[in-house]
Amino acid sequence: MRVVDLSHPLRTGMQVFPGDPQVRISGAASVPADGFEVAELHLGSHSGTHLDAPRHTVAGGAGIDELPLEWLIGQARIVRLPEAAPHSTVSWSQAADQLTGLAAGTIVLFETGFSRWFGTERYLSHPVFDADIARILVAAGVRVVGFDTLNPDPTPDPANPASGSPDGASALPFHDVFLGAGGAIIENLANLAEVTWPDPQVSVLPLRLAGVDGSPVRAVAFQP
Description:
Blueprint: E1 2-5, E2 24-29, H1 31-34, E3 38-42, E4 50-52, E5 73-80, E6 89-90, H2 92-95, E7 107-111, E8 128-129, H3 131-139, E9 144-147, H4 173-180, E10 184-187, E11 201-206, E12 214-223
Parallel strand pairs: 5-7, 6-8, 7-9, 9-10
Antiparallel strand pairs: 1-12, 2-3, 4-10, 4-12, 5-11, 11-12
């Protein structure tokens, strides 16, 4: 079996969405002192490579523990967009030729190459995805979509939190459409370029956090 890890490691001080809880991992017990080791974790539900459930932006939407597991394991289609520029908007026409013959239930993953900037200021300047892509994917029966960026929508400048919302419009138009339709969004994927075979199998299983809006995942692509 070929396996590629699509997840960023969770570690203290790692980059998070501006304003989200910082990640802190510390020791709660040690073998020398206690005879066993236990780590204490402090992190937000959207730390590292993670899955957004509808509840993230939809009041009363499904929590992460309510997503059907069969949605989160299965065949994926990777859309390669290596020319996507910082702060550019990816339109449906730029991706359409890589999404022909898409079967309902396919997990669609977008590779922009921005994962190589994870942990740097440049990562905040990622391309964004037009909400029409979300509408077309929902209509095609896609329930899970993922990105190797911090966000499919604009990420605000930490020094200017209002910068992510253009003149009164929703700050999260892609989220509004896709999560509003009951789907789930994976963010901060890594290593998609290492998946060199077509239509890989993918697993993006979250922690079973009752009633929570999202969860870190160990995302992997594999070929049985």
